[in-house]
Structure formats: C-alpha cells, structure tokens
Amino acid sequence: MGEVSTRDESRDRRSAAQIEADITRTRAQLAATLDELAVAVHPSTIVGQAKAQAKASVDRTVGQAYVAVNRGVEQVRAQFVDEKGQPRKERIIPVVAVAGAVVVGLVLLRRKK
C-alpha cells in the first residue's frame, strides 16, 4: 500500500494526442532503423564492402611493394654513385665487364646449337 511508484508521473498526464504522437515518432524511428538494417545486410552492400576492403588491401600491398622496390633501387644506386652524385668507376667497370662476358658467353652458346 505504501509502495513508491517507479513510473514517470509526467508521462501519466499525457493526453491521447501526445501518446499517439509518441507512438507515431517511435514507429518512424523503428522504420528508419529497419531500413538502415535492410541496406546494411543487402547482398550488394556486402559485396561493395568486400570490394572496398579488397581494393584497400591491394592498394596497401602495392604501396608497400613500391616502397620496398624504391629502397632497393636506392641501395643499388648507392653502390654505383657516390654522395656527390658522381659515378664510382671502380665499381661500374667490373660489373660492365662481367655483364659483357655473360652476354658474349650466351651468344657463343647459342651459335653452337
């Protein structure tokens, strides 16, 4: 008998029109939420998200590969060019000589066949 009510007494004083407006607003919110869920689980949305993730992964991998190749090229370049940008002949000449010998060897092997 002396229990305390946990209900919001201001809501108890709402008119029928206010209650109907609340119901209408709640229905609209529910409909919007259901529409959002329908779009989120639609196969075309899922496919689009998968494509976007795959593209991002490929872009990231290509970017990493580009950086790695660039770093490798710079390391090789550093072997044949000094800090001033001048060619290091003491390193270039032996490489050119070996490459030339390989080409001559391949040509001679092809002629024998």
Write up what this structure looks like.
With 113 residues, this protein is mainly α. The protein contains four helices and no strands. The chain is elongated, with a radius of gyration of 37 Å. The mean pLDDT is 89.
What attributes characterize this protein structure?
single chain; mainly alpha; 81% helix
Quick summary of this structure?
The protein has helices at residues 9-12, 16-41, 43-80, 89-112. It has 113 residues and is an all-alpha fold.
Topology:
Elements: H1 9-12, H2 16-41, H3 43-80, H4 89-112
Average of per-residue pLDDT values: 89
Count all strands and give the number.
Answer: 0
Q: Give the SSE order as H and E letters.
A: HHHH
Q: Which structural class do you get from the secondary structure elements?
A: mainly alpha
